[in-house]
Input
Amino acid sequence: MNRANLSGTILEITQPMSFNKDGMEYKYRTVVIDVGENIIAANWWSDSELPQEGAKVEFTIELRSERNNKTPELFYHKLNLKSIYESHTVYSAVQYN
Output
């Protein structure tokens, strides 16, 4: 797994979204963070609390590459938030996909 620790400002947090796969419901929110010259959008696979938009945060992201089930020679990539730190508060995702 590839991980990176970055800092930036939260620009947007989407409303909770969900989908069903193999009889299981998965919930996530997308968090958009300005890291200076770039903007990163990553998924938060948890119902746990997040800092507010506009908060200055440090965060850990993970890039995962997985094979496509229907076409195994193809891969897809996910950028997931692992944790967010704001003013001595740690927010950790409980479930990752």
Observations:
- The chain has a mean pLDDT of 86.
